[in-house]
Amino acid sequence: MADGPPQQQGRLGGYPPAVSSPARPGRRAGPPPSRKKLLLASVVIGLLLLEGGLRLTMGNFAQSRILQRSDDPDVCLEVRPDTTLRYTGWRTRIAPTTFRTNRFGARGPDFAVPAEPGVLRIAAVGDSFTFGQGVEEDEAFGQVMARALQARGIPAEVLNFGVPGHSTPQEVALVRHKVLATQPDVVLLHVFVNDLTVEESYCDYGSGGIALGKWLLHNVYVARQIMMLTHAGGHGAGAATGVDGSPGERFVASLKELEALGREHDFLTAAVLLTDRQMYRQRCPGCDIAHDLVTQAPIHQVDLSPVWAHLQRDIDANFIRGDDHFTVVGNEIVGEALAGAVSQWPELKARVVRVRQESLDP
Predict the structure, then answer these.
(1) Torsion, CA 249, CA 253, CA 254, CA 259, rounded to 10
(2) Are the CB atoms for 178 and 105 separated by under 8 Å?
(3) Is residue 36 part of a domain?
């Protein structure tokens, strides 16, 4: 008798025999992608992700967009006239502020020439600190100073001719090129620590030869980050390319030129030192110190070293984190201190009396 039902006979161990599947026509597998292509795709994707991340964390670098190439090669760059831009920081994103310029290329609303009768016109020249980078136009220390002088009974107005990136030689050239036309009573030249470093990159910026680089800095955040990393700590002493003399010699020559312009065009001049000796030694080892150099020129000096030391005691309150410029509070401190120093300047007191008298003369 068979051991199992008829349908199970012929099976091996009670299981049906294995049946091989018929071969199916299929596509031939292509060659695997090359490692170079995979690497290139990974790099492109990584750069796109990095670009997106930087756009979320970095500012829009609008202080460079507010600039244009000047007709005067000694000025190099100047502020674009009749322009309004939003600024969100240059290194890290900060609270947005507005850059507005007038027909003279000064920050703020338009103004008449000459000044209104009885008003003391002060022109402030300097770099991004004078311009008020990171704060609104009426919060920059020049406007704080104007309000503080008015509170002291001095009818003053301040024209903000600060240009981000300028050094002393370019600032004095700007006085010749633009400020003279506004008929100032006083020109205050503000001196910061990087005014005695090399300027070889500044005057080349915006020239036709590096148009592509300019476009990349404006529009590609990865390129801007690379520029910042490669230029970090790049300040140092020495003469700029194609310029005669050391930075210290050019600084003194510029002060002498400004004082001569003041005598020729009948306005007072003063150099305002915004930092102290220690900051010069820290930020620019080997550089000349402005406090020593300014004594070599016949120009009035306003030394705000004690104010700078006071600002250093509370960095978070007085400096914009990630932007390194004065906060609203820092601008208030500097503007009030500057008004106090200027109001005690004997020549300025005499100029105020003269301006008032001229407004009363028929």
Answers:
(1) 150
(2) yes
(3) no
**Residue 101 phi, psi dihedral angles, 5° rounding:** -125, 160
237, with CB counted inside 10 A (0-12, 13-18, 19+), is middle
Residues 314/344, Cβ–Cβ less than 8 Å: no
Q: From its phi and psi, is residue 296 left (phi > 0), alpha (psi between -120 and 50) or beta?
A: alpha
Tokens 């016949």, residue located: 298
Rounded distance between C-alpha atoms, residue 4 and residue 190, angstroms: 110
Q: Give the separation between CA 339 and CA 342, rounded to whole angstroms.
A: 5
Hey, which residues does 258 pair with through a beta bridge?
A: none
Residue 8 in any domain: the answer is no
What 3-state DSSP class applies to 67? strand
Domain housing 201: 62-360
- What is the bridge-based pairing of β-strands 84-87 and 97-100? antiparallel
In total, how many domains does the chain have?
1
pLDDT at 8 over 50: no
Tokens of 302: 């306003």
Q: What's the pTM? A: 0.82
CATH number for the domain harbouring residue 283: 3.40.50.1110
Q: Evaluate whether residue 316 is within a structural domain.
A: yes
Task: Convert the pLDDT of each residue in 44-76 to its tens digit.
Answer: 888 888 778 777 777 888 888 899 989 998 998
**Hey, what are 96's tokens?**
């947005």
pLDDT, tens digit (0-9, with 9 covering 90-100), for 254-296: 999 999 999 999 999 999 999 999 988 888 777 789 999 999 9
